[in-house]
Write a structure and sequence with these properties.
Blueprint (H helix, E strand, L loop, with lengths): L8 H6 L8 H6 L2 E4 L8 H12 L4 E3 L8 H14 L6 E4 L1 E3 L2 E2 L13 H7 L2 H17 L4 E2 L26 H17 L3 E7 L26 H8 L5 E4 L21 H11 L5 E4 L5 H4 L4 H11 L4 E3 L9 H15 L1 H18 L5
Parallel strand pairs: 1-2, 1-10, 2-3, 3-6, 6-7, 7-8, 8-9
Antiparallel strand pairs: 4-5
């Protein structure tokens, strides 16, 4: 059983710096971006730390290009944490095991087998022990969030992004939930946050959302919600990462085809209302082809927030922009100033983010 976390309102708001009550500060906490640089002395890394210190940025996303050595990673993460000790940043990476790892043996970090391999060879208890070693290493490098575990069911074994790389624990929802729980508990024990992905389910798709539009209308089934339902009932309330997955039954009533990451039907209707998820909703990378080829930055941000996304994730790799966070925050603030309902969504997201950040390291 995942331990439910109750956050008292008094504790929540007493942890918020006084200067963080403005619309700009609240909007800043909703943004996590990728960055250039692999050393704490790099000008780009110092600039990111300054953004965190100013409350203009909620966190950072690591890619392999940011990792030249474990010592350098530790130094950068120490700088990011020191920039905002009262409201720690989300310092994130994808460290699932198998092909999806940012920390590898190339820099001296022990690698972990794929989810498929672990499920085939280890019990959930044995898996928890393996993931405990992974989590301890991630924590020692100064990270606060690991974007895992994968909750996708291995419905389509020829799936080009899940099945192909062994990223799923299996076809059965209860099996996947059991191994997801082992992954989560191991990370919680280390003081790390996790993220279930890729809601509502990427495992049955026939295409890869990194590359372009993905339609799951004919392949997806409600069984793919099974791991989420089980884990939420057990108290899970970290992140859920929503995929860029289009389903004609949950795509809005307008002319624009909205993927799950931009769909109120999926996030507000299914994830929040039906499944009763109480944690923080984060988008998958909003620069993936499935989004970038269909929406500009303004429409991406507005659709995501209106759909119920709390944290907007940008890898900043499509066309690197050192002021990407400024651009996103400006859109959020402008829309919030013009529309009280939009501002209320920012405030609600901010409250959930602060509550979750209060659990970092605990």
């Amino acid at each position: 059983m995942i331990r439910p976390v109750a956050v008292a309102l008094l504790a929540l708001f007493s942890a918020v710096p006084a200067h963080a009550a403005t619309l700009e500060q609240m909007a800043g906490q909703m943004i996590v971006v990728g960055f250039k640089g692999d050393d704490a002395g790099d000008a780009s890394v110092k600039a990111v730390a300054a953004e965190i210190a100013a409350g203009d940025l909620g966190g950072v996303m690591y890619l392999k290009t940011n990792v030249k050595s474990l010592k350098a990673v530790q130094a950068m993460n120490q700088a990011f944490r020191a920039a905002s000790p009262d409201l720690p940043p989300f310092i994130t990476l994808d460290q699932e095991g198998g092909a999806v790892e940012r920390l590898t043996t190339d820099v001296g970090f022990p690698e972990t087998p794929t989810a498929a391999s672990i499920a085939a060879n280890d019990s959930p208890a044995q898996a928890k022990a393996a993931y405990a070693k992974m989590a301890a290493g991630i924590k020692s490098e100064g990270f606060t969030v690991n974007f895992g575990p994968v909750a996708d069911l291995n419905v389509n074994t020829k799936n080009p992004i899940i099945g192909k790389f062994g990223r799923s624990f299996g076809k059965d929802a209860s099996t996947v939930a059991s191994y997801d729980e082992a992954f989560i508990e191991a990370h919680h024990d280390a003081g790390l946050l996790t993220s279930l992905k890729h809601f509502p389910g990427h495992g049955s798709s026939t295409a890869d959302s990194h590359a372009g539009f993905v339609d799951i209308s004919k392949t997806w089934s409600k069984a793919e919600l099974g791991p989420y339902k089980t884990l939420f009932e057990g108290g899970y309330a970290d992140f859920v990462m929503v995929g860029h997955l289009y389903h004609s039954g949950y795509a809005g009533s307008g002319q624009v085809k909205l993927p799950a990451s931009l769909s109120p039907e999926w996030i507000g209707g299914v994830l929040r209302d039906q499944l009763q998820f109480k944690g923080v909703v984060i988008s998958d990378d909003l620069e993936m082809g499935a989004i970038r080829k269909q929406f500009d930055l303004h429409d991406t941000v507005v659709h995501a927030v209106n759909a119920g996304v709390d944290v907007l994730l940008f890898s900043n790799t499509a066309a690197y922009s050192p002021d990407l966070a400024d651009k996103v925050r400006a859109i959020l603030v402008k829309e919030g100033e013009a529309d009280p309902a939009f501002a209320a969504k920012i405030e609600a997201s901010y409250a959930r983010i602060v509550a979750l950040k209060g659990r970092i390291g605990k």
